[in-house]
Amino acid sequence: MATKSGSSYLFLFSAGCVAIIVCCWANCVEANPLWTENENQLDSQDRNEIVFEAGEPLTDEEFKSGVQGKAASIDNQGQSWEKQAHSGLVGGDLLPGITKSANKNAAAKWANAQVPYVISSSFSGEERQIIASAMDVYHQKTCIRFVPRRTQSEYLKIIRSRESKDWSHYPGCWAGTKVGGVLELSLDNGCVTRSIAIHELMHALGFGHEQQRPDQAKYIIVKYDNIEPKNHQWFKPDQPNPFNTVGRYDINSVMHYGAYTCAIDPSKPTMVTKDGRTSMGINNGPTANLYIPFLFPGHQMDLRKLNTMYCKY
Question: Please, is 295 exposed, middle or buried when counting C-beta atoms within 10 Å of its C-beta (0-12, 13-18, 19+)?
Fold first, then answer.
């Protein structure tokens, strides 16, 4: 991830993170509010499935491109949860039904830290660079490697949602969880930025949302009175599993909701730290630690968790 200067990098990255949290998490559907008026917002009966066609494997040049993609405008507040084309995604970006059981055993891990992948031919050249650049963050900082699929029966399938075999009626940005076979990861229009891709790839690697760790109550206070009852479930702690008990709770994790996510009154937080702070999650500027750990060596918990689960560091 080459940069022209430390200061310009931090400015651009901080602006990107702010844009992402406002547009992606503030309405409780991280990526979905980024949609524009396009085919991804059509009702399910109008969303004809498109046959998936695999593109060429990503190249070394694409991995090293460093392209981040254009963040949505921070003035775009997105759509409310009720107006999403489909509000059934778990926590905004996980497929329903399979996610609760998937992380409970070692089957959620990829063997030998190798993630075979195929990528749709529908992505443009720039979008391929952005996705490859997100993968390269993992390549640089962990032992995890995204490798072209050959004959493997278990692999990551990077698609547009309408190319999904079983989930084409769920538009937006989302990931399944590997239980066996194919794991689909959708990046629709408005989703293809490096920040979102990194988040969804970490889901694909087995990790859920940080604020739902079993030890949540030791670190944050959830303001349920400012959250619609139907959204309470995305703040409730999960049962322990190997992925949500590794390492310590990380208030700055790229997998943590922002403090105002799902707020009924957007001027008031839905979560605060034990000492009342609202700085948390991906909206915490440069300390969104997965992206630039080499600049902030004290904020590497996401990387430590990945390396513990996959690399035994």
Answer: middle
CATH top class, domain 6-310 = alpha beta
299 is in an annotated binding site: no
What's the predicted TM-score (pTM) here?
0.75
Token couple for 251: 């208030």
Q: Flag whether pLDDT at 113 surpasses 90.
A: yes
Cα–Cα distance measured from residue 129 to residue 152, given in angstroms and rounded to the nearest whole number: 24
Active site members = 200
Is 199 assigned to a binding site? Answer: yes
Average pLDDT value for residue range 161-190: 81
Domain segments of the chain as ranges: 6-310
Q: Binding site annotation covers 86?
A: no
DSSP conformation letters of 231-247 = GGGGTSPPPP-TTTSSS
Q: CB-based burial of residue 179 (10 Å sphere; 0-12 exposed, 13-18 middle, 19+ buried)? A: middle
